[in-house]
Amino acid sequence: MQAATTLKYRWYYTQAVIVVAAFVLIAKLAQLQLIDDRYKSQAQATTISREVEYPSRGLLYDRKGRILVHNAPQYDLLVTYRLLNPNMDTTTFCRLLGITKEDFIKRLDKDWKDKRFSKHVPFYFIKNIPADVFQRFQEHLYEFPGFTPQVRFYREYPHHSAAHILGYINEVDEKVLQDSSDTYALGDYIGVSGIEKSYEKILRGTKGISITLRDNKGNKIKTLSQGINRPPISGKDLTLSIDLKLQEYAEHLFQNKTGALVAIEPKTGEILAMVSAPGYDPNILAINRRDKNVLQQLQTDSLKPFYNRPIMASYPPASIFKPAVALIALQEGAIRPNTSISCPGYYKYEEFRYGCHHHPKPWNVKIAIEYSCNSYFFQAFRNIIEQFGFEHHDAGLDVFVDYLYDFGFGHRLGIDLEGEASGFIPTSKFYDKLYPQYKWKSTYIMSIGIGQGELLLTPLQMANAACIIANRGKYIPPHFIRRIGNEDEGLPEKYKNYNLVQIDTSYFTPVIEGMKWAVQSGTAQRGRIPGIEVCGKTGTSQNPHGKDHSVFFAFAPEKNPEIAIAVIVENAGFGGAVATPIASLVIEKYLTGAIKRKYLENKITSLDLIHNLPQ
After folding, report:
1. Does residue 92 surpass a pLDDT of 60?
2. CATH 3.90.1310.10 spans which residues of the chain?
3. Is the confidence at residue 159, as pLDDT, over 90?
């Protein structure tokens, strides 16, 4: 009896436990379904969103640490078409962003057959939203499911110089998207010219990825596993070799002129300044203020401001080529340092007659360079070409051309900018084709000896030639990169090692003496700087389309040179008239930090060779 009673109580107890447990489960279920919507939201989640976090692009500095290019935030708005609320308040939406309803409809109207767009993948609805507008809109973002804000960075230029060097960025085009192996996506920016393009892989950084769970309204529920996500990695900063103040000054001297300037540190090959004139302000190509027609205007302007003359244009070097002829002639034994060549004021061969400057008799190489004697270099060139006999001039020219290649002529030097031209060195094969009916002779091509004829050099090659003479037979290819990140490591090997010219160092002495005296008392006297020994050479480059070009190259000081420079000013006439003063002022600015010859500076800056205004 007692046992039966005990069993009965146990049965009631068990039933009570089951009822309580059932009640708890029902209550919990009611809470989850009716009160707590956390799991309801997750159940309604319809997409896993892969969001891109853009890195900060590497900054650019000049050699003294002054900022050349920096970043500013750009606020964009993306939209996922299938997440849009068909009943959204478009009036408020358009008012917040400052657009019309027609704009709204147009921005959503995509060709869904185009592979670039998908209703399931975010695409750009509007770019470059002003910061105040973006901030105001973001406060109401929850009202507009399907829209996602995004922060990117565009380039800003705190100065108005060095546009051809720095380059610019633009949105990737279809070809880049096809070739990029998912590195770039629609709407990404890429360097398309200048340093921005040359060092794109270093500057761009690495995108970050954030994987998030979103509901059918596009609201973020949570970020998924950290193992899937990765933060963005900023691009590396670059320190360039240019001196900003020198660059600005050189551009100032070139106002209202057409031409080019290249200044290089001879020991390192680092470019201190490079001017292409006319130029343009890099700020007009900044993404946030770029007019849609500005690129076309730059490209079609008759003055060609978009054309990078220092590396793309080729000119006859004229008489600045004579020091190279002298060095080759000395090395080949075609002349000696004290060789004297007659000059009655002209050079004559049969019916050919070419005038010369009025100057003392060229008793030696130094005097010939000092006064730029045409007769001397016509004959010195012929001696090189005819060294194997008058009938074997092709062999002599081949030897001459080999030396020119050593000097960096006739091929690209390898500057870290795209678009470098090679210039042109005429070879024996070239002349065989030019004169197919009869055998050419050295007398046919004498003009090469004074830097004319078919010979063409870029301003960069001219400046590099000044480096070679300053260094007495060696050079590091000209370049802009000085440091990547915080280390010198990573610089290309070609910018660390010297290239050698096969000229005995002793032969540079009379040539350098001649260049020094050309500035002191010869054709380049406008290049004199009190207290600084400048070694230079003028040239007047023949121009079949108008007035001759003014050319000058130099280095200073004579011992332990710190700067080598080449200047060409189109349609400016005699080399000593315009190119020489410009180079001299730039040298003075770099070596002393100031300009004492204000009269010369004022004369050059007031000279207008584009509009031909009266002086």
Report:
1. yes
2. 51-240
3. yes
